[in-house]
Amino acid sequence: MAALNSVTGEPLIGATSTTSSPTTCFLPFAALKPMTPEEFEKLAGKAIRGLPKFFRDKMKNVVVIVADAPGRARERRFGGGLLGLYEGIPLLDRDTGYSGAMPDKITLFKKNIEAECSTPEEIEEEVRHVVMHELAHHFGMTDEELRQKGLY
Predict the structure, then answer these.
(1) How far apart are CA 33 and CA 18, in angstroms?
(2) What is the pLDDT of residues 95-150, one digit of tens each?
(3) Which residues pair with 24 in a beta bridge?
(4) Which of 13, 22, 104, 123 could staple 78 via S-S, CB 3.0–4.6 A?
């Protein structure tokens, strides 16, 4: 499992936090050769670097981690096909007592994202979408708000 700096997209060590919100989908494709962890991490870094500067500058105490797949407990809790997961305290919920906390964590599930896509370009787009979706949770948006805005 690798973690990426949320501003530079460079490798970093991550940690867990208190709340979580998943991105899930169905897994219709499995024809692509799996990417190496390094190739996938580069896509995650590119997605982070591709965010508008306004959002990168506002990301506080968050890391992005690439894992092969969610464990059984996460699959039981969130269902199969989990593409990404935000765990942490959204920016809107932080108050003066928020200090010294472990970083929020966004986990991208490599095998599930690859299984969802049929081309390397689709993988890159899906990584970008999942990063943006999970970052919306970091900024305080719920899944319901994302659905209402057509962003889910």
Answers:
(1) 35
(2) 888 888 899 999 999 999 999 999 999 999 999 999 999 999 998 888 888 888 87
(3) 82
(4) 22
CA 135, 61, 140, 15 torsion: positive or negative? positive
Residue pair 90/137 in contact (Cβ under 8 Å)? The answer is yes
The confidence score (pLDDT) of residue 22 equals 54
Instruction: Let me know: does 11 contact 66? Beta carbons within 8 Å.
Output: no
What is the C-alpha separation between 142 and 3, in angstroms, rounded? 24
CATH of domain 2-148: 3.30.2010.20
Burial environment of residue 73 by CB neighbours within 10 A (0 to 12, 13 to 18, 19 or more): exposed
Beta bridge partners of residue 11, listed in sequence order? 4
From residue 42, how far is each of 5, 66, 85, 93, 127 by CA, in Å?
12, 10, 19, 31, 10
The rounded distance, in Å, linking the Cα atoms of 116 and 126 is 8
**Distance between CA atoms of residues 103 and 123, nearest Å:** 26
In 3D space, the residue among 95, 89, 91, 84 whose CA is nearest the CA of residue 130 turns out to be 84
